[in-house]
Structure formats: C-alpha cells, structure tokens
Amino acid sequence: MMQARLVAHAPGLALHEHDTFHHNVPMFLEREGLLVPLLKRELLALLQGIAPLWN
Fold first, then answer.
1. For the stretch 10-35, what's the b/e string if a residue is b when 16 or more beta carbons lie within 10 angstroms of its beta carbon?
2. pLDDT in 10s for each residue of the chain, 55 residues
3. Contact assessment for residue 38 and residue 29, using Cβ atoms and an 8 Å cutoff
4. Predicted local confidence at residue 52, as pLDDT
5. pLDDT confidence of residue 55
6. What does the DSSP assignment read for 1-55?
C-alpha cells in the first residue's frame, strides 16, 4: 500500500484497493473473475485513444 500511495495522484492512474491478504493481486483478481474484465476495459480505453492505423 505504501508504494501505491506514492503514485496515487499520477495523471491517468486509477488506484483501486482490493480486499486480499496476500501480495499476488493478479491471482486474487483472476480467482474473483475480475482480472480479464479489468484488462479488457483498460485495453479498450487504450485502443480508443489511438488513431486507427488504416487512415
């Protein structure tokens, strides 16, 4: 949490806390069924911010 707080106000960064007791957050998110939707949402946001290559 200390590291997360250091970058919490960085532009373009969204900080979310998850109720887990271990350090393997990706594994926790996968078990909760949250990892793939999170990655899809972030990738879509990235792609929407990039001009199509075929223009």
1. eeeeeeeeeeeeeeeeeebbeeeeee
2. 677 777 777 777 777 776 777 778 888 889 899 999 988 888 888 888 765 555 4
3. yes
4. 55
5. 45
6. -HHHHHHTTSTT--------SSS-HHHHHHHTT-HHHHHHHHHHHHHHTS--TT-
Phi, psi of 36 (to 5 degrees): -65, -45
Amino acid code (one letter) for 10: A
55, 49 Cβ separation under 8 angstroms: no
Reported pTM: 0.55
For residue 48 the two structure tokens come to 């929407």
CB-side exposure of 43: number of CA atoms within 13 Å? Answer: 6
